[in-house]
Amino acid sequence: MEEIRQARLRRFRPYSEYRNTDLAWPRALPSHWEILRLKLAAGITAGQSPPSEAVRDAAGGLKFLQGNAEFGEVNPTPRFSCDEAPKRAKPGDILLSVRAPVGAINVADQPYGIGRGLCAIRPRSGLAREYAYYLLFAVRWQLNLTASGSTYDAVTAGDVGDLTALVPSLSEQRAIASFLDRETAKIDELVAKKEQLIELLQQKRTALITRAVTQGLDPNVFMKDSGVEWLGRIPAHWDLKPLKYLIAAPLAYGVLKPDKYEGGDGVLLIRILDVEMGEVHENQVERISPEQSIEYCRTIVNPGDLILSVVGTIGRCFVVPESLAGANLSRALARIQLGPQGDARFVEYLFASTAFRTFVDLIPAGTAQKVLNLGDLADFVVPLPQVREQREIVNRLDQEVGAVDSLARRIAAGIERLKEFRTALISAAVTGKIDVREDSE
Description:
3 domains, four-stranded antiparallel sheet, five-stranded mixed sheet, Adenine-n6-DNA-methyltransferase TaqI, Chain A, domain 2, about 450 residues, alpha+beta, single chain
C-alpha cells in the first residue's frame, strides 16, 4: 500500500533545496519555508457553552455548535441555536474538534456560537486560510500524542496552539491550496462514483435475496397470492407460517446491563455493534461475568442459533458459529432457535430481504429509536418451502450474493486506497515533500 502511494507521489518533483530542521518532524523542509507554532500564525478561540436553557432547536437566533456531532463534509449542519454565545466563530474560521474524536475539521460558513467541544482557528495575515485548512489535516496527528481524559480523549486550546505550522510565502501557500483543491476534488469525485457503485451493488444484493426467498429459483413455478401485505405472491407449493410456529425455544432478548467483566473466565457478550449482516466481529466482543450470564441463561447461544438485531438498526443477522458457543447477547439482540422446519441460513437471508424490511416499517414506532418487540417478531410470517428447497436457495444465494459482496469489497478497498492517497498528497504538499507550484496553474 505504501509503495503504491509513493509511486503516485513520484510524478511530482521535489523542491530543489532542503534544509535539516533538527526536529523529529519534519526532519527536512524546503530551505525558504518557516517553522512556527500555530498560535503565532493564527488566533485560537476555545469554545464555551452558554447556559443550557439558552440553547434551543436551530430555528432562529445564532446557530450553535456543541461539538463535532454537527460537522458535515466541509461545513457544519447545525441543530441548535442560541440568543447569545460566550465564544463565537466567524465565517471562514476553521473549526477543530478538541474532544473525541479529536482533530475533526470543518469550516464555518456563517457565524456560530461554539461549545466546549470545539475551537475556532482564525489565520493571521501571514497564513492563508485555504492553506491552513489543509495544513491542519497534515499536523492534527500531533494532538493524539497529548489527548487525554478520564472518560474520553480531549485537548486544550493550548495544545492546538502548539501544533507545528509549516509556512511558505503567501503566494506559495495559495498555490498549494489551489493545487490541493483541484486534486482532492478529482479524488473525491472518483470516491463518490465508487460509493454509488457500492450502493447499486447493495440494491442488487437485496433484490437477489428478496426474489429468491419469496419467489424461489424456478421462474416458471405456479404462483399464488400470499394474502400478506408485504409479501405478495409466492410459489403455490410453499407454506406460510408465523415465526413463532417454527422456533424450538422462546424468543429472548439479551443482557440488560452488562457488567463488563475483566476476568479471564468471562463469557463473551455479543453486541449490536459487533454484528454485520451474516457475520460477527469476534475480535471485538466484550465479556460479562459467568454469574451474569447464568442470570440471562435464556440467551446463551448455541451453534446454529440465529442472532437478530431488534433495536435501532433492525435486521442485522448472523448464524452463530462454533467459536461463539456459550456466548451471550446484549439487550439489542434477540436469539432465535429454529426447529426442524426452518433452515437458519434461509431465514437469515429472509431477514435481509425487502419483505422483512417492509414488515418492520409497517410496525408503529413507539419511541424515537425503532424497536422490534418479540411479540411482533413472533408474528412475522415466513414464506416456507420444504427444507431441501430452502437449502437449494441458500446455496444459490451463497454463490450469487458472494460474488456481489466480493466485488463490493474490492471497490471498498479501492476507496480506502484513494482516501489514503488523498491524505498522503495533502501531507506531501504542505510539508514541502513535493513542489506543486507549477501544477497549481
